[in-house]
UniProtKB/TrEMBL annotation:
<protein>
    <submittedName>
        <fullName>Secondary thiamine-phosphate synthase enzyme</fullName>
    </submittedName>
</protein>
<comment type="similarity">
    <text>Belongs to the UPF0047 family.</text>
</comment>
<dbReference type="InterPro" id="IPR035917">
    <property type="entry name" value="YjbQ-like_sf"/>
</dbReference>
<dbReference type="Pfam" id="PF01894">
    <property type="entry name" value="YjbQ"/>
</dbReference>
<dbReference type="InterPro" id="IPR001602">
    <property type="entry name" value="UPF0047_YjbQ-like"/>
</dbReference>
Length: 140
């Protein structure tokens, strides 16, 4: 069994859903050494999240942003946690809905994503800053 791990700092991105598959693969080139295994990508933040979804049509990412903004609106007077602005608590709720990690199988040195699948950084803040990820791969 081999285990590899690398931290990755993503540049600040605007609020929305951003494909980061290439950056993840580049951060851990040792994936190519694994015949079979697992890759986990974990985000070290509570106001951004990760998911896997459509990687071809950019309107999907726009629709994701529209849906989550409707589902978890800003400026709700019932929110108690708003120390960092009106997008603060909604960002935490959106991150809780989507999650902090994704897990992808590895086969013959490659991530086994479907034809139209990519890894998304889901940035829920207007000014979230750089985002730290930990990419871990293990297998044989």
């Amino acid at each position: 069994m081999k285990i590899y791990q690398q931290s990755l700092l993503l540049n600040e991105r605007r609020r929305g859903f951003h494909l980061i598959t290439t950056e993840v693969i580049q951060a851990l080139p040792q994936i190519s050494e694994l015949k079979t295994g697992i890759c986990q990508v974990f985000i070290q933040h509570t106001s951004a999240s990760l998911t896997i979804n459509e990687n071809a049509d950019p309107t999907v990412r726009k629709d994701f942003e529209m849906y989550f903004n409707k589902t978890v609106p800003e400026n709700d007077p019932d929110y108690l946690h708003d120390d960092e602005g009106s997008d603060d608590m909604p960002a935490h709720l959106k991150a809780a809905l989507l999650g902090s990690s994704v897990t992808i199988p590895i086969r013959n040195g490659r991530l086994v994503l479907g034809t139209w699948q990519g890894i998304y950084l889901c940035e829920h803040r207007n000014h979230g800053g750089g985002r730290g990820l930990v990419v871990t791969a293990w297998g044989e």
